[in-house]
Amino acid sequence: MSSSSSSYDVIIVGAGVVGPSLAYALATKRSDRHAPLRIALLERSLAKPDRMVAELLQPGGVNSIKKLGLESCIADFDSAALQGFYVMRGEQGISVTFPDGHVGRAFEHGDFIMALRERARNAPNVDMIETTVTGLIEDERTHRVTGVRASRPGGQSESFSADLVILADGSLSKFRSAVLGQMQYEPVQKGYLAGVIVKDLKLPEPKYATMVVLKGAGPVVLYDLPNDEYRMLIELKDPPPADLKEHLVNEVVPQLPPVMRAPILAALETSRVRRVPHYYLPSTKQGQSSKAGAFLLGDSLNMRHPLTAGGMTVGLNDVVIIADLLSELPNFKNWDEISTVLQKWTHLRKPLASTINTMSMSWAGLFAAEGEAFEILQDGAFKYIGQGPEYSVPAMSLATGITASPSQLTRSSLAIAFYSIWVLFTHPKPGNKYAPRFYEYPWLMIKALNVMWTLGTVMGPVMWAEK
After folding, report:
1. Long-range contacts of 407-416 (CB under 8 A, 24+ apart)
2. Which of 78, 180, 403, 456 would bridge with 226, disulfide CB 3.0–4.6 Å?
3. 177 within 8 A of 164, measured Cβ to Cβ
């Protein structure tokens, strides 16, 4: 078995969404005052990926793509423009439009990845190499990471050296503990997501992604894809149902609008129903106590619930920030300078990452959970947002990455909780003609306290982890 070695300024491991984006950004945003970078982008398979997630790019992610100069990657192939969300609960539905003319984009995941890889491949001084990274190379004296060991598809072993190694190898990264050491948080599996492609579907509101809140089952999200196809995603609790198809046919489809049921049932008979686990992983600060010479990026560092489609938005925003910071350095030899950049990056990425992560985990928990307090919050949230743009736009701006503000998320969540309690006291219960009488208030006050406690138990741990 032969071996070879190559030397670069920076090695990026992983050519999913963030890897090619960062390679392109580092190659093109380089200051004229500094020498061009030699960049190696390593990926174990350069074949077109086939995934059912990372297909919906929220407006915040679209903005980051434009900042990186990669907007052609969503224009060179068919992608569906999305203007907002249509949210359904029972027989009621409300349209929530993205504010200020912002749009989201939905596309076939593999097409998007191949477009990003093509732009990175054509960027100056970028080598895209199909190889499987098997380990990190460290300096024996300083223990700084100086490169990676890898193996070609044919079995040829090779090594790559660089001043900086960036690991963007995804949710199942095998380098987390090597880089971060003693981790404060480990990836925690939170459930599963099932998905199927549906044809000939009519959504309640054209060009709006549809979210349906169900009873006894997780929420469902449906959105346009190119070629007159639609993606249906279903949240599954852990453990997932033994018979997935039976669960969808008997528990999910009957709760969907009648006009949707026939094409979805047909898809369940003829199309592949896929299931993937999803994880939550709060980010860990890097630079001071992490392994010198390397850092994590993307899902290898930070994961959240996929149902709100915030992962790509967070990852691309991270690329925008870190690329700008690194472009100001003359080279990547001085780890103290890199460490300072990573600390600044952690601070700058926090508002958007924390907002989207908290919202995805807490809102997914809110709409997927069962119990009286959750039903009160769901009913209140639906009525609150349904009051009009003045109430829906702030929440939509937070969820889609247009606004990055954990404090505004806290205020919005408390406003919804207090409104839910007001609805509890002033609106008739289902099946009743009249609002609760004053003698019911003591019992309702106990329910109100339970609502606030429930909101705290859902959001509190995530907010603490994302602080």
Report:
1. 408/355, 409/355, 409/358, 409/359, 410/463, 413/362, 413/455, 413/459, 414/455, 415/384, 416/377, 416/380, 416/381, 416/384
2. 78
3. no
- pTM value? 0.94
CB 87 within 8 A of CB 396: no
In angstroms, the Cα distances linking 6 to 3, 100, 175, 273 are: 11, 48, 21, 43
SS3 331: coil
| H/E run at residue 224 | strand 220-225
In angstroms, the Cα distances linking 31 to 34, 35, 162, 330 are: 6, 8, 20, 9
| Nearest Cα to Cα of residue 1 among 131, 157, 151 | 157
Helices 372-385, 335-368: inter-axial angle, 10-degree rounding: 100
Q: Which two tokens stand for residue 362?
A: 């807490």
As a whole number of angstroms, the distance between CA 56 and CA 59 comes to 10
Side chain identity at residue 100, one-letter code: D
Please report, for residues 3, 135, 172, 268, the alpha-carbon distance to residue 146 in angstroms, rounded to integers and kept in the order given: 18, 11, 22, 50
Across the chain, which has 467 residues, the per-10-residue mean pLDDT values are 75 98 94 86 96 92 97 85 93 91 94 96 96 96 97 90 97 95 90 94 94 89 92 90 94 94 96 93 92 97 91 97 95 96 97 95 83 93 93 92 95 96 92 87 96 94 91
Q: How many CB atoms lie within 10 A of CB 158?
A: 18
Helix (H, G, I), strand (E, B) or coil at 183: coil
**What is the full DSSP assignment across 97-137?**
EPGGG--EEE--HHHHHHHHHHHHHTSTTEEEEE-EEEEEE
DSSP state of 402: S
Give the model confidence (pLDDT) of 359-411 as tens digits.
999 888 788 888 899 999 999 999 999 999 999 999 999 999 999 999 999 99
Grouping H, G, I as helix, E, B as strand and the rest as coil, residue 386 is coil
How far apart are the C-alpha atoms of 393 and 409, rounded to whole Å? Answer: 12
